[in-house]
Amino acid sequence: xxxxxxxxxxxxxxxxxxxxxxxxxxxxxxxxxxxxxxxxxxxxxxxxxxxxxxxxxxxxxxxxxxxxxxxxxxxxxxxxxxxxxxxxxxxxxxxxxxxxxxxxxxxxxxxxxxxx
Amino acid sequence: xxxxxxxxxxxxxxxxxxxxxxxxxxxxxxxxxxxxxxxxxxxxxxxxxxxxxxxxxxxxxxxxxxxxxxxxxxxxxxxxxxxxxxxxxxxxxxxxxxxxxxxxxxxxxxxxxx
Lengths: 116, 114
Prior knowledge:
The structure holds two protein chains of two kinds. Chain A is mainly β. Chain A contains no helices and eleven strands. Chain A has strands at residues 3-7, 10-14, 19-26, 30-38, 44-49, 56-58, 61-66, 71-76, 85-93, 105-106, 110-115. In chain A, strands 2, 4, 5, 9, 10 and 11 form a six-stranded mixed β-sheet that branches. In chain A, strands 1-3-8-7-6 form a five-stranded antiparallel β-sheet, with no helix packed on it. In chain A, a hairpin with a 5-residue loop joins strand 4 and strand 5 (44-49). Chain A is globular.
């Protein structure tokens, strides 16, 4: 069964700190790994990673995938109170028999709280 | 362009009743997926529809069903509601290709079963 595990489950930091969120996965016929930020209701897309070792970067956020060790990390530098949210990681796979790959297997998320 | 629209935003139902939730995808998106989010289990995949056909189904009982119309709008139905069905139900729509930034979530329907 496909499985995505995130750690830590929660994290409290002070503004300006750097944080690293972890995501390990076991997804049959792995295709991609996605990171989302969920503040209130709708998760918003951050990154999609398909190739090992290539860092994706957007402002203070960056992410990298290790397909050999089956994990990804999300880094946030110089954290701000607006970064407080649940960060979700999800894996997608290539189905071997019919269906489609429009199915995300999510981890339970990391609740990040950034205090001023 | 308009985002993914889910209605209603909030719903309170009694055990044993049934409920129908609606999702209107981004214009031009043909794939609609549904997810259930609870504090204990996180986000879990329910099913995915594309051009009115169910292509993927998660591990939920048959009380959970869905459909998609020719305009890509989708509904999901939960019959014989149980207290454990209380959750945030999210739908996501996607255009061409695998899930990526085009995989956009709606704000969800918060269902409370009492």
